[in-house]
């Protein structure tokens, strides 16, 4: 692996590649991603805009969010290090008839190739699988045009997120395969803000993504102690 790809955990990539054929099964282990997709899509559209925007989806997986953004009129590039994930994402374009430029790359490598080119960058449910999230955020800042928007989604590191996202979702309710998440890699909003600031990004908004156990559905709202979305802007 070249220097520029050192911020990649091969075991994490393999974990996602092993389940790649199930990305688009709304009832399978990617069900939570399917369920949160409309919520995060509306958040991105509202905070950053999508129509005719040049958008980069970092850690795009099988392309659930990339395709949804393309459907809303964005010109989307999706990057991931997983070959199988990208294979599934490319195949799915044949079904949807949408256009997305999928590439096997890390954010750091693409930043060397395409600096300052994107209006909007999304990086969702990915930072908690990377050895050095600050380095990914720094690369995202370099990939953005000045004034460009970054929308991130991840998990906070709190006792409640351990209970809900690991014990609840993985072991009790089996919404996700056990071992999907590692608590130590969860990211506190204060850590996110500090990394963003160091990268020249200014944090504009934090919004919680809540799972309602009774209705078995997600909604956005205040309270960022488990899943949350963050919106930042690249300073000029
Ligand atoms: N963003 C997608 C997929 C989330 S799963 C969605 O929310 O629908 C996390 C994805 O990040 C996996 O596809 C995994 O292969 C990818 N990933 C993990 N580390 C990465 C890295 N360093 N560079 C690029 N992709 C990475």
From TrEMBL:
Pathway: Cofactor biosynthesis; ubiquinone biosynthesis. Signal peptide: none annotated. The gene is ubiG. It comes from Ectothiorhodospira marina. PANTHER family: METHYLTRANSFERASE, UBIQUINONE BIOSYNTHESIS O-METHYLTRANSFERASE, MITOCHONDRIAL. One of its GO terms (molecular function) is 3-demethylubiquinol 3-O-methyltransferase activity. S-adenosyl-L-methionine binds at residues 40, 59, 80, 124. Belongs to the methyltransferase superfamily. UbiG/COQ3 family. This is Ubiquinone biosynthesis O-methyltransferase. It comes from the Bacteria. One of its GO terms (biological process) is methylation. Coiled coil: none annotated. Its EC number is 2.1.1.222, 2.1.1.64. Pfam families: Methyltransf_23. It catalyses: a 3-(all-trans-polyprenyl)benzene-1,2-diol + S-adenosyl-L-methionine = a 2-methoxy-6-(all-trans-polyprenyl)phenol + S-adenosyl-L-homocysteine + H(+); a 3-demethylubiquinol + S-adenosyl-L-methionine = a ubiquinol + S-adenosyl-L-homocysteine + H(+). It is an enzyme of class 2 (transferase).
């Amino acid at each position: 692996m070249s220097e520029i790809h050192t911020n990649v955990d091969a075991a994490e990539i393999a974990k996602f590649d092993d389940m790649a054929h199930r990305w688009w099964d709304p009832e399978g282990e990617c069900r939570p991603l399917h369920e949160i997709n409309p919520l995060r899509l509306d958040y991105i559209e509202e905070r950053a805009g999508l129509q005719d925007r040049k958008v980069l989806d970092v850690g795009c997986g099988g392309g659930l969010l990339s395709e949804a953004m393309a459907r809303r009129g964005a010109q989307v590039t999706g990057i991931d290090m997983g070959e199988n994930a990208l294979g599934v994402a490319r195949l799915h374009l044949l079904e949807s008839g949408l256009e997305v430029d999928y590439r096997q790359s890390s954010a750091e490598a693409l930043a060397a190739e395409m600096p300052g080119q994107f209006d909007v960058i999304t990086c969702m449910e990915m930072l908690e699988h990377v050895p050095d999230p600050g380095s990914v955020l720094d690369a995202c800042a370099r990939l953005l045009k000045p004034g460009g928007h970054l929308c991130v989604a991840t998990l906070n590191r709190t006792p409640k997120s351990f209970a809900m996202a690991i014990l609840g979702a993985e072991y009790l309710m089996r919404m996700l395969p056990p071992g999907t998440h590692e608590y130590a890699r969860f990211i506190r909003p204060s850590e996110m803000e500090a990394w963003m600031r160091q990268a020249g990004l200014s944090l504009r908004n934090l919004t919680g993504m809540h799972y309602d156990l009774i209705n078995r559905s997600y909604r956005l709202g205040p309270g960022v102690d488990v899943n949350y979305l963050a919106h930042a802007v690249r300073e000029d």
